[in-house]
Design goal:
- By secondary structure, the chain is of the alpha/beta class.
- It has helices at residues 3-14, 26-33, 37-51, 95-107, 124-139, 153-162, 178-181, 187-199, 216-227, 257-270, 287-295, 315-325; strands at 56-66, 112-117, 143-147, 166-168, 203-205, 208-210, 235-240, 275-278, 300-302, 306-307, 310-311, 328-329.
- The strands form 2 sheets. Strands 1, 2, 3, 4, 5, 6, 7, 8, 9 and 12 form a 10-stranded parallel β-sheet that branches.
- The longest helix has 16 residues, at 124-139.
- The N and C termini lie far apart (46 Å).
- Iron/sulfur cluster (SF4) binds at residues 70, 72, 74, 77, 79-80, 118, 149.
Length: 331
């Protein structure tokens, strides 16, 4: 028996597939990433089936309610004022316009409506308006989600009172790689906001982006950090970097699609009860890669032609793919 077989057998034998753990060591997460591909996918799919209907995909729609002009310097983001990407800064959308978009999303099959604003953090007067939007979207019978930057505990409480179901705040990458991507706030700032969101009783949507020049070890660190949060995020978006001209990451090396699939699979195994979202980057992804991601335990997508400011597959193309794979929208 060689070393690799021993490792695989130990992982299969020792891991209780139903356990929700918060004590993943990096060595354990690394071992998962290094499993032979068929073994990794088999394990991820087995855990997926114990926790979800493997034919269902949760569908979210994301609307940019306030675009561009963001003072943060996230190296991947076309909405930062630090980079010349051609994205024009716009004011916060009017309530009626947001509700019209939410109605259209619901008619197109979305069950969750996410509202994104390019802020470092919301001002209280802006939050008043966002709270009205949250209440209005909720009244349409949709789940509500927002991503507005950093929040105080008080702001998180106000959003909860308005009816917010989910707050998205990504850790983006490993603690070690974070400083190479963002300098205007710290990893701890992110963790603090996630804590405020949890304390307010809002579900957490938190994941990261791969393909940002990170090492394999950084992907391990990102998943280990997410899986060791005090509670697992209910939604874990795993994004493939969308390279935008003008941003510092516009011309970096692309990640191997199979490494992306591995990242999805390890997220599924380490956070067995979370919805794992195959998020940004699908526009440039082959159908075969997306199919492998679903096999690896992804069970959510963003639906609609735009993700904030970057392209996403047209709705018809997505529906054709789901049809081909025999997948249906989660109720
Ligand atoms: S990712 Fe968000 S916080 Fe960062 S620059 Fe873009 S809009 Fe601002």
């Amino acid at each position: 028996m060689d070393d690799r077989t021993t490792l695989t057998e130990r992982l299969v034998r020792d891991t209780d597939p139903d356990a929700v753990r918060h004590d993943w060591t990096r060595a354990e997460v690394r071992s998962l990433f290094e499993l032979p591909f068929p073994e990794l996918i088999f394990r991820a799919q087995s855990i997926h089936r114990r926790n979800f209907d493997p034919t269902e995909v949760q569908i979210s729609t994301l609307l940019s309610i306030k675009t561009g002009g963001c003072p943060e310097d996230c190296a991947y983001c076309p909405q930062s004022v630090h980079y010349d990407t051609g994205v024009k800064a716009e004011k916060l959308m009017a309530l009626d316009a947001v509700l019209a978009e939410a109605r259209a999303a619901k008619d197109a099959g979305a069950s969750r409506f996410c509202m994104g604003a390019a802020w470092r953090e919301p001002k209280d007067r802006d939050l008043d308006k966002v709270c009205e939007m949250v209440a209005g979207v909720k009244a349409l019978g949709l789940e509500t989600c927002a991503t507005l930057g950093m929040l105080t505990g008080n702001q998180a409480g106000r959003l909860k009172a308005a009816g917010l179901d989910y707050y998205n705040h990504n850790l983006d990458t490993s603690p070690e790689h974070y400083g190479a991507i963002i300098t205007t706030r710290t990893y701890q700032d992110r963790l603090d906001t996630l804590g405020h969101v949890r304390t307010a009783g809002i579900h957490v949507c938190c994941g990261g982006i791969v393909g940002m020049g990170e090492s394999a070890e950084d992907r391990i660190g990102m998943i280990a950090t997410l899986a060791n949060l005090p509670e697992h995020p209910e939604s874990v978006p795993i994004n493939m970097l969308v390279k935008v001209e003008g941003t510092p990451l516009a011309h970096g090396q692309a990640i191997d699609p199979l490494d992306f699939v591995r990242t999805i699979a390890v997220a599924r195994i380490t956070m067995p009860k979370s919805v794992v979202r195959l998020s940004a980057g699908r526009e440039d992804m082959r159908e075969e890669t997306q199919a492998l991601c679903f096999l690896a335990g992804a069970n959510s997508i963003f639906y609609g032609p735009k993700l904030l400011t970057t392209p996403n597959p047209e709705r018809d193309r997505d529906m054709r793919l789901l049809d081909k794979l025999g997948l249906v929208p989660m109720e």
